[in-house]
Design goal:
By secondary structure, the chain is an alpha/beta fold. The chain contains 14 helices and twelve strands. The two termini are 34 Å apart. The structure holds L-rhamnitol and zinc ion.
């Protein structure tokens, strides 16, 4: 792409936005500050390094595109490749099953910070901060229930696991000098009608109380609800209502996964309500197609609306932006890049919105003017700003990242089998 054209288009865009009172240079700085938490599990279809068992817990990665990462070195290389095609500095979100277990079987109730020592060193070398997740799925003791299991032996196994994960996250946060955000999602539910809805929820609540009993300085907890999982369609213990109540009462961060609500529900609309009652939000930006299918995030109305709400709530410093999808049917590194860049493009458009003008119209009851400006904003030259953002960050501009992904495929991933 011709650099001079990009600079010229940018200069015109700066003028165009100045006409509606937007300082594009400032917006570029704001976008630079938005760190995405890249989900490590896109690189290998949520397999991890604990065992090669099947993926359970009501989630599914469909497709068998060749070249998935088979070990820790391949996964790190893939993440770095993806990160090199995404403008800005980003974080990496690890799941417990991605520990460096040195070829030994380490059960979930035995995990320690030492199993993430090499990750912490690697991350420090890369200047990449880490986030973390406990892992309740893909384990013989998972079944349909984990933290809500009525069997005390099984429940305490998962309580111990989750407590240990918090200790790992604390160590990560301390070492990186920035809080590690630890997400807690459990698949617990029931395929068919249960007559014990209260019982399992009371158990989950008690488990969470035990898990969160230890106070930490360098990690933050977030809790993620969901509508249903595959094979667990009739009941989800950790529903939206359950976690909203828990988070409001205990001042925990709520994770909003955009695939975890009823298909016509607006996730964007939840931001302002939740931020009045909980300290912060974590996002799992995804693309549900008919269900929580975890398709690759694209620049669609849902993602745009979500980013606009964050900006309109002036909440960039209270919302952590993570990604959560796993598509095994296309090039996995390409999937990282598409979803990350799409999220950034949405955030950019949100930051370029002439809110002061729109709000003036609204205050004056000028509904026509507000709607007209909202419509016009859609076709303002935000893409010229985006190209400049990529150029400044030394990553491929526009579609030229396709060739980079193809090159890596030819040289690296296609050689795996
Ligand atoms: C599952 C949740 C959860 C997982 C990851 C792998 O529906 O979205 O966040 O995707 O923990
Ligand atoms: Zn999620």
């Amino acid at each position: 792409m011709n650099e001079q054209n990009i600079r010229q288009a940018y200069a015109l865009a700066v003028e165009r936005y100045a006409a509606i009172g937007i300082d594009v240079e400032m917006v570029m700085q704001q976008l630079q500050g938005v760190q995405l938490s890249l989900h490590c599990w896109q690189a290998d279809d949520v397999t991890g390094f604990e065992s090669a068992g099947e993926l359970t817990g009501g989630i599914q990665a469909t497709g068998n595109y060749p070249g998935k990462a088979r070990n820790i070195d391949e996964l790190r290389a893939d993440v770095l490749k993806a990160a090199s095609l995404i403008p800005g500095k980003h974080r990496l979100n690890l799941h417990e099953i991605y520990g460096d277990f040195g070829g030994k079987f380490v059960d979930r109730d035995e995990v320690e910070p030492a199993h993430f020592e090499s990750w912490m060193q690697w991350a420090a070398e890369q200047g990449m901060k880490l986030d973390f997740n406990s892992t309740s799925f893909s384990h013989p003791k998972s079944g349909d229930l984990s933290l809500a299991h009525p069997d005390e032996g099984i429940r305490s196994f998962w309580i111990e696991h989750t407590k240990r994960c918090r200790a790992v996250a604390e160590e990560m946060g301390k070492r990186q000098g920035d809080p590690c955000i630890m997400n807690l999602w459990v698949h617990d539910g029931s395929k068919d009608i249960t007559v014990n809805r209260m019982k399992y929820r009371a158990l989950l609540k008690d488990s969470l109380d035990q898990v969160f009993a230890t106070e930490y300085q360098h990690m933050k907890d977030c809790i993620e609800s969901k509508v249903f999982g595959i094979g667990l369609e009739s009941y989800t213990v950790g529903s939206n209502d359950f976690y909203i109540g828990y988070a409001a009462q205990n001042q925990k961060i709520i994770t909003l996964d955009t695939g975890h609500f009823h298909p016509t529900e607006s996730v964007a609309d939840k931001v302002s309500s939740m931020l009045l009652y909980v300290p912060e939000l974590m996002l799992h930006v995804s693309r549900p197609v008919r269900w929580d299918s975890d398709h690759v995030t694209i620049m669609n109305d849902e993602t745009l609306d979500l980013c606009k709400e964050i900006v309109r709530c002036d909440a960039l410093d209270r919302v952590h932006v993570g990604l959560d999808y796993f598509d095994a049917s296309i090039n996995r590194i390409g999937a990282y890049v598409i979803g990350s860049r799409a999220t950034q493009k949405c955030m950019l458009q949100a930051l370029l919105e002439p809110l002061h003008l729109l709000r003036k119209y609204e205050a004056n009851g000028q509904g026509f003017e507000r709607l007209a400006l909202l419509e016009e904003c859609k076709s303002l030259p935000w893409n010229a700003v985006w190209d400049m953002f990529c150029l400044k960050n030394n990553v491929p501009v526009g579609e030229s990242f396709i060739a980079e992904v193809q090159k890596y495929e030819a040289e690296v991933t296609s050689k795996r089998n």
